[in-house]
Design goal:
This protein has about 120 residues and is α/β, with parallel strands linked by helices. It has a single domain (about 5-115), classed as Trna Endonuclease, Chain: A, domain 1 (3-Layer(aba) Sandwich), CATH 3.40.1350. About 30% of the residues lie in helices and about 30% in strands. It has helices at about 5-10, 20-35, 70-80, and strands at about 40-45, 50-55, 60-65, 85-90, 100, 105-110.
């Protein structure tokens, strides 16, 4: 499944926003329901452990809290590993995010959008 399709599919779901682990569990269930093959908590090398990695090497990182700067630095590290075909940042925070990092296409999934 393409990253655009994943974002489109998940953006219509009201995912829990109180705790990051609950959000991750709900995203995992939604991906599985849609037949997306993925692994959880994948070590990309070093201290870089991404929340989800699909069979197509699309990484999904879930962030409920944290500063925009810290989140961006973490995503840069992930993209620089060379192990991602694309990155989706699933976040309840409104912030600017680049369309590409280190040659890796990036997408934002606004977790709060479905609740509006």
């Amino acid at each position: 499944m393409t990253p655009e399709a994943i974002v489109s599919y998940l953006s219509n779901r009201r995912l829990p926003l109180a705790r990051e682990k609950e959000t991750q569990t709900a995203i995992g269930a939604a991906l599985a329901e849609n037949g997306v093959e993925f692994d959880r908590e994948v070590d990309l090398g070093g201290r870089n452990i991404i929340d989800f990695l699909t069979a197509d090497r699309v990484g999904i990182e879930v962030k409920i809290a944290g500063s925009a700067r810290t989140i961006h630095r973490q995503c840069v590290r992930y993209c620089e590993t060379g192990k991602l075909s694309a990155l989706i940042l699933a976040s309840s925070r409104a912030s600017g995010f680049p369309g590409e990092i280190a040659g890796v296409p990036c997408f934002v999934l606004s977790l709060g959008r479905a609740w509006l």
